[in-house]
Amino acid sequence: MKPSIQLPNELIAEYSTRDPFQIAFLMDVAVKFINTKRQKGLCAIFDGYPFIFINQNLSEQMQRMTCAHELGHVLLHKDILTGNVPLLEYELFDIRNSTEYEANVFAANLLIDETELNEQIAEGGDVVSIASALDINVNLLLIKLIEMRRSGKELNVPFTPERGFLGRIDDRADSIG
Predict the structure, then answer these.
(1) 131: region left, alpha or beta (phi > 0 left; psi from -120 to 50 alpha)
(2) How far is CA 57 from the centre of its chain?
(3) Pairing between strand 87-89 and 41-46?
(4) pLDDT tens, 47-66?
(5) Fewer CB under 10 Å: which end of the chain, C or N?
């Protein structure tokens, strides 16, 4: 199992929560809010201490997703973060970059409970209604569904996104790109 899939499950089991803010706190990862116009978030390691910075102007849902995504970077990509060079997120969820995609898969697996998702699928919901019921952005839901399909679950994913569609999402739960 890939780290971006396995690690979130280990964190959920260890900390008894899916809340990325709570997990970051418990792991001594500092989360700070910044006032910026375009940047959704960034992460960096300064003097050995991991930091996540999140745009305070985003919705709570997008802040939660950004925190989960950046936490994925902190845990999966420490090698990139060394040297005090932050990873900047101007266009969150850019699936053209493998590092970004891994952070997206991490966030999807951390935030989306597969049992709840399977219940929503069984009830016949479409991706927008399921995303709304789970209080998650539809783009992150699509990543979760694609990864579930790749792992062998028979799912009818409504469409496979263009490689760059997630880089264009805005701060709405139903934004598809």
Answers:
(1) alpha
(2) 18
(3) antiparallel
(4) 889 999 999 999 999 999 99
(5) N
Which string of b and e fits 39-73 if b means at least 16 CB within 10 Å? bbbbbbbeeeebbbbbbeebeebbbbbbbbbbbbb
Are 82 and 61 spatial neighbours (Cβ–Cβ below 8 Å)?
no
Question: Hey, where are the domains in the chain?
Answer: 3-110, 112-168
Pairing of strands 30-34, 87-89: unpaired
- Distance CA(89)–CA(13), nearest Å, equals 28
Q: Model-level pTM?
A: 0.84
Backbone dihedral angles phi then psi of residue 15, each to the nearest 5 degrees: -105, 0
Look up residue 154 and give its two tokens: 């028979």
Side chain identity, residue 128:
V
